[in-house]
Structure formats: structure tokens, C-alpha cells
UniProtKB/TrEMBL annotation:
Protein name per UniProt: AMP-dependent synthetase/ligase domain-containing protein
Alphabetical UniProt keywords: Ligase
Organism: Bradyrhizobium ottawaense
Signal peptide: none
Family according to the record: Belongs to the ATP-dependent AMP-binding enzyme family.
Amino acid sequence: MNQPAVSPTLDTLFQRTLIRQPHAPALLDPLNKARVTGHQPRRMTYAEADTAIEALSAYFVESGLPANSVIAIQLPATVEFVLTVLAAHRAGLVVAVLPLLWRHAELTAALNRTAARAIVTMSTVDGVSYADLAMHAAAEAFSIRHVCGFGTDLPEGMASLDEVLARPPGTTRAVIQDGRKAAMISFDVTAEGFRPVPRPHFSLIAGGLAMSLEADIRQGATVMAAFTPMSFAGLASSLAVWLLSGGALALHHPFENEVLEQQINEHECEVLIAPAQLALRLGDADLAARMPTLRNVIGLWRAPEQVAASDAWIAPHAPLTDVYLFGEAGLFGARRGEDGMPVAVMPGPHGAPREQSGSSIAGEILLTPKGTLGLRGAMVPIAAYAPPQPVGDTLIAQPPRDYVDTGYAARLDRPSGAICITAPPSGIMAVGGYRFLSNDLQEWARRLGQGALLTALPDRLSGHRLAGRAQDNTRAREALSELGLNPLMVEAFRDRSGPG
């Protein structure tokens, strides 16, 4: 009797490489990890990583976390992040990724919306106590049963995962490895508000394939990931690309340019995956002489409407692939040509690689009747973005929608027929990877006091940056903290003294 074909999971991809080359380098920590988290940097082979994954997976099972339950993770771009995600999947759990810039209120909302049974964090990141943040959020989330952390000086009641890694693995359970099973939950902000976005393994792998095939990443390459991993794009560009290539994954906690350059040269990285504006800045600084081992650069655009007007790429030894990000809805990539300019993106199905005839279809781009960009394909979670049922028509079945409307304004260029993305979704701001409704600014400004001003200004690197003016800037920061803004987010507030 023939067994039905089962699509691979992320753990399946890891174990394939583990069997083939157990002693090859697998994971490389940021060189400045001691400053960021207090941990010393680690370098792990596939066999060492597998032992750590097995120990963490056994702990999750022994803690009583049922299969298919949700475990929330709020970690920086370090080895612990990768180990925890793979361990959770090996234990049959679904990972909910929580951005580092989130406020207490958002953490609590995410934990409650997903009915998460556990949360994993780091004791401190860049001097901020994430352990305390997790404990306070867990106290208001009725489903949370376990709070776990890496690092020292953990609060009472938080389990130490460093101690788990220091002892032999315990009891595990058999889990059916099927790529159609839920793998992750990320979170998006749309015009309708806060939205959890679940995805199966095959959707994450599809996102990684779209990048790695378009950029022509060779098997066994050492990949430098310098993009915050707590999103679909972050997981696809780090975890999925690494597992598909079967090489080593070097991680960088964004951003210290000198440390990043040192890491790339020390680890002889062939691939750099980073925010596009950072990649362009590095490309302008004699990339061939300073980082000669690079052969591919993947630039991730949080603001895809900026791609067409971007500067030419001037490092031909390491071609640039533009990856257009549309929140948590999906992405697509386009490798630049010999002139270094962005290539035209046509509507309709697109393969990976894009210009190769007969290549596998990575997705489809379309223009919606509202003049916005739509996406469909294996990586696009259509059900998560289904429009709400019209009021009063609850008994009338609505026609199914087979695409996601990203909300990005777009049009067709008449001479070429290419898609032109012209503006981000209305009413949504982004500071770094943190998205929020523009109406939230009014509430934040109100808390700053009379005569205060808070606005979001366009920023080429991070999308927007917060700028403000207050009679008492110290009190303004305190007010934002009282509102629940994460301290790292508060640091984005700029005092703009004087009129205007």
C-alpha cells in the first residue's frame, strides 16, 4: 500500500542535514552577544544543536504542554531563538513570535488571542528586562502555565532554560512530521486592527524558497541573517533559507555596522540578508574590498513602495535581490540585473527564479478592483485575512476570496505593464518592524501633556520614526512608558525643540 506524500517540516529539513554532516557548523552567535544579552557567543555544529533541541523539546513535553498548543517566543536574533523554535516544533507545538518592540498591552493581547500555554524570553536584551515584561504579561493571560527564560537573575517563578540545556535530554514524544500542520503565528496590524496570522510549515518553506531560489543561494553556503526574526519574513529569511541551503547560519542582532562586517569576514559568509536600506548603504562602501567573501545580498524592503526609486547597486561581485515585504501577508523577490537597478515586476504568476522559464511558481501578483496589490500562492495565508462578514448578512454565504489584499496602493505602468507600488496601507505606521495604527499617535500625544506634539516622520531605513516636542521631555518619556510602550520603542522618541 502506498503511503501518501507528506510535505517536509522545518525539523525534517534540519534532520536531513544532521544525518548528512553532523559535525559541520550549523549556528553562529552574534559576536557582540555578551553586550546584548550577557551570554557568551556560541558556535554549534548540527550534532550539538540537535542535542540542545532535544533537551528543550523534552522539557516542553515534561512540562505538560499538549501537542498542538501554542508557545510564545520573544527572543533576539541569537542561537537560543533558533533552538527554541526547532525544539517547539519537535515537541509538536505551534510557535507564536512576539516582536521585541511590543508593549505590555500588545503582549497580553497576543497571549490571550492565541491561548498560549507558555512564553519563552531572554532575561535582558540591550539592558531592558524582558523577563519582567514576560512575567507581567503572563499574569494577565489566563492560559499561560509556564514562563521560561534564558540568562541570569531570572525572576522567581521563571524556569531557567540554560539549566535545561546543561543536563541530558529527558522524555520526548513521537510527532508526525507533516508540513501541512500549523508551525507559527505572527501578528499583523491592518485597517481592521490587530490580527493573528497562523501559518503551516509549507508556507514558511515557500517563503524561504522564493528568496533562496531567486537569489541563487548555493547549497552549503554560510548565511548571515541581520534581520529581526520575529515575523514571517524574519523566519523565512533566516530559519527557512538556512535549512534549505544546509549550510551555517550566522546571526546578527540589528545593528552594529562594525560588528556585522567583522562577523561576515570572520565566518566567511557568502550570503547577507538584511534590511534593504542597510544593504544599499554597505554596497556603497566598497563591498568587494571590505567583505570579499560575499556572493549574494538579499535586501528586505519593509516599505516596498520605495524599491523603484532606490539607488543602483554597485557591487557586481555580490548581486542584490530585492524582497518586497507586505506585513505578514506575504512577499516576493526580484534579483537586480547587471545595471544594478530594480527590475520591473509584472502582474500574474511569478516563478523562482523569476526569469527562468519553467521554474516553479512561487506566487501570483494581482491588482485588486480597489487599486491595491493582491497576493496569492502557497505562502499567503488567505483565511487569516478574510474580510469580515457584512453586518446583517450573517446568514448569507459570501463568495470566497482566493487572494489577500495587502492594502498597498498600486497601478499598472502603461508602457511596460509592470506593477507600480505607490503608497503603504492607509492609516498604518511602522517604526522599524513595529506597526501600529496612526490613530494610536493621538492617544500617545495626549499623555505627553498640554502643548506636546508627537508624529511619525518618514525614515528611509525604518519606514517611520517617532518625533515629538514636549515642555518636559523627561516627563514625556515617563508618560510613554506609563502607557505601556516598550523602553526600546520609547528610545525612538526624539525631542525636537523649537517651533514647528
